[in-house]
Amino acid sequence: MITRSLAVLTMAAALATAGPAGCQGSRTGPAPVAADVGGGPAAARVDVDAVRRELAGLRVAAEDTGNHYRRADWPHWDTGAGGCDARENALRTQGRAVTTGPGCRITGGTWVSPYDGVTVTAPGELDIDHVVPLAEAARSGTRGWSAAERERYANDPVVLVAVTAKSNRSKGDQDPARWLPALDRCGYVARWTAVKHAYRMTVDTRERAAITNVLNRC
């Protein structure tokens, strides 16, 4: 059974539409993000100490490469209330001045991709990324999840981020040891850690070291 704190993940989800940049050593509660280590658009604030505590709470284990990822095992883009599917809802909530047509089809709006800072006005140019990719989730101690648990994760709005197709495809299914966004790396690893913590996923040693390295620079 998956136990999670929706409040933690909801706050982490705000990183995709972050506010003023800044670094903060300690605050009460979970992560909004620190100053981006590489400059760029304003980032939210991160509670580095809270992220460290969540990271310390993750079980360290080698990736379960025997739990092969199959897309069909993680059904996504479920239709929710109002007739919009998970992808459409992510675009609606993460964009500005978003317009829709029949069947909740997204017809326009403005989005800023948090991974690379690119402003997008054509919804077809956006991908919806799972912060912890589905294939990575499959390798992270979820072998015992039921079909319903996999589906819930794959459609959880606080796990989904609207980003440029280029940045999403560059990321693929890689963890922070292999890929980090060009912008707001502190915010990215904070959200990654919050998702893994809330869903009780495992972390491997290289991944954990990479996240720690980013946090040391926040």
Q: What is the compact description of this entry?
A:
The chain is an alpha+beta fold and 218 residues long.
3D structure, described in words:
The chain has 218 residues and is of the alpha+beta class. Helices cover 33% and strands 11% of the residues. It has eight helices and five strands; from the N terminus they run αααββββααβααα. A three-stranded antiparallel beta sheet has the order 1-2-3, covered by helices on one side. α1 packs antiparallel against α7 (185-198). The longest helix is centred in the last third of the chain and has 14 residues, at 185-198. The chain is globular and about 45 Å long.
Measured as a percent range, the helix fraction is: 25-40%
* Beta-strand content estimate: 5-15%
- Class of secondary structure makeup: alpha+beta
Q: Topology as H/E string?
A: HHHEEEEHHEHHH
Described by the principal axes of the CA atoms, the overall outline is globular
Mean pLDDT: 84
Q: What composes the largest sheet?
A: 3 strands, antiparallel
Number of helices: 8
Report low-confidence residues grouped into runs of 5 or more.
Answer: 1-8, 10-42
Assembly type of the shown chains? single chain
How many strands appear in the DSSP assignment? 5
Rg, please? Answer: 16 Å
End-to-end Cα distance: 34 Å
Give me the side-by-side strand order of the main sheet: 1-2-3
List keywords for this structure.
218 residues, alpha+beta, two-stranded antiparallel sheet, three-stranded antiparallel beta sheet
